[in-house]
Amino acid sequence: MSRFSIDPNIARARTISTEVYTSEAIFEEAKEKIFAPSWQFVGDTGHVAEPGDVWPFMLLDQYLSEPLLLSRDKTGAVHCMSNVCTHRGNILAYEPCKSSQLRCRYHGRIFGLDGKFQFMPDFSEVENFPTEADNLKQLPLFHWGKLLFTTLSPNFPAEKFLGEMMHRLACLPLDRLEFRPDLSKDYAVNANWALYCENYLEGFHIPFVHNSLGAMIDWNHYATELYQYANLQLAIGKKGDACFDLPPDSPDFGKDVAAYYYWVFPNMMFNFYPWGLSLNIVEPQSVSTCKVRFLVYVFDESRLNTGAGSGLDQVEYEDEEVVENVQRGIRSRFYEHGRYSPNREQGTHHFHSLLAAFLG
Predict the structure, then answer these.
(1) 134 Cβ contact list (under 8 Å, min separation 6)
(2) What gap in Å lies between CA 354 and CA 319, rounded to an integer?
(3) Most buried one in 127, 154, 212, 260, CB count within 10 A?
(4) pLDDT digits 0-9 by tens, 254-293
(5) What pTM value is reported for the model?
(6) Is the CB of residue 356 less than 8 Å from the CB of residue 6?
(7) Whole-number Cα distances in Å, 341 to 15, 175, 208, 272, 347
(8) Cα angle 75, 153, 30; round to 5
(9) CA-wise closest residue to 223 among 251, 196, 202, 199
(10) Are residues 79 and 138 in contact, defined by beta-carbon separation less than 8 angstroms?
């Protein structure tokens, strides 16, 4: 049994130990136990739109800090691979570029855009060379429309994390999503990454924290659905507010859906509104700080700034204030565990159960 064991019966359960939010050791442990085996968003196909495009990035910078790159080879195939030369560990691509190959600026080793070793000067006398180890490490790459995901330790298929959401939202025009850097933003939050996630995972706080959002949502019909490594909070709008125009083959046809709030373990939030997607990635920075990236993709600009998908800045700042106060509060000698509302905090209970299982 995990030392953080959570009772599966939410009516009996106590919240996870505050060690999760305060312990440096657990913060480090989560790198390999939680984040390395999970699927992470790495960008979209727009980064490598044409053959020869190379786009380097750091996966969860300041935490996993794994140097990776996306490339599109001459056949049009998109690859995700290590951005570290297999000779002496130099970073290969320093910035986005267009090239027919990857050439290390340290000693001239050359790789194809598929990561395969091609040439190394002054290595003719090296025995048993090259081998598979001289190729760049390839990572699995999962496509959902234009969105791309990878994992450092492929223990679970991506469908276990993303499949329920993909099936439920198959009716949305996701092929028309366009990234909007002008609407996207990063937020620095003085709270542990898990505190930020668990706040997201319940609508219990909406009437108390988010006055403007609460005015657009029928809180009495707010519903949570749990999946193996994800969950959905279905927000029903009030009559007259901006809602989805869902086709008859949608499972939610006939409902006034204002927003689909999908969380995917451990740190991804897919907020779908009638205008598009606000994709939030929670990146751990330290045991008591995180960065939250709001990446905005639009498929219907005419509906921007309407309904539950408007005023996202304000909602974020309201959430920040709460979780930063909780980060201070959970350090109290008088607080160790709380209890769950069986009707309102199923998502938080589910999250804590997954944390306990992965850390265990």
Answers:
(1) 86, 117, 120
(2) 23
(3) 260
(4) 999 999 999 999 999 999 999 999 999 999 999 999 999 9
(5) 0.94
(6) yes
(7) 11, 38, 15, 26, 10
(8) 140
(9) 202
(10) yes
